[in-house]
Amino acid sequence: MDPNAAREILQIPADQPLTMEGIDAAYQHEFWLRHPSRYPAGDGRRAAEAWRDTLGAARSALVAELHSPTLASSRPRRSLPVGAIVGIVAGAFVVVGAVVAGLMILLALGRSAEAVMAEVGHGNGDAATSDSDDVERYEARDTGFEFPAALELYADGRYNGDCSTAYLEGCWQSALFTEADCTELEVTLGFSDRATALRPDATDTVVLRDVVHGRAVPVVFGNDDFDYGWIDQVACAAGGA
C-alpha cells in the first residue's frame, strides 16, 4: 500500500512526522471506531472485518516507511529498534470461567471488561489497584495458580514496548506478583478462538528468571492465530522459596 494512502486511511496528516507511537495511536483509534465486535453478524460485521484488514495493511505500510533507509537516516540512530506495537484496544480484557488449574482469564480484543463482566460475573476477584478502568487485579487466592501469584491485566498500553512487531494483532499485557521468590518461573499461556472455552486449544510456555516476590513481573505475549489468550498456569520450576 502506498504510504500516502495509508496516512489517509489512518487519518495521519501528510505533514505529521511518522513515529511508532503516532502510528499505533491512529491505528487504535480507527480500529476501535469500527471494531467487528460492535456489529451483529451480517453485512455490517463483514464490512468491519474488511476494514480491519485495510487498517492493518495501512499500519504495516507506515511501519515499513518508518524503518526505510530514507527516514532512518533523518532521525537519531538508536541502539535498539523501536519495539512498540499496537496494544490491545481500550477495554481489551475478558474474564471467562475457570480451568482445573486455576482461574481462566481470557483477554479478548475489542470488548470492554464491564460488558463481559455483566455477562459472566466477576467472581470474587478484587478490584483493580488503580482507579483506572484499564487495570484489573486478581489476588493469588482468586487466580489459584500452582505457584501463588496475583495477576494484573492492562489495557493502557504500558508494556507496548515489550510487544514484538511480529504480532500484527498486538499483544496481551499483564503482570504477575508472586508470593515468593523463584529462580525459574514457568508461565503456561493458553489460546483459543472460543470465548467460552474452558481449556486452551493451544498452549505455549515461557520461563521468567530470578523472580522476586511482590515485584511486578511483566507477561506480554501475542498470537495472531487466536482471538483469545490468557495465563493458564504458573509454576516454579526451580528455586522456589
UniProtKB/TrEMBL annotation:
Q: Could you tell me the keywords of this UniProt record?
A: Membrane, Transmembrane, Transmembrane helix
For this UniProt entry, which segments traverse the membrane? Answer: 84-109
| The protein, known as | J domain-containing protein
Q: Which organism is it from?
A: Agromyces tropicus
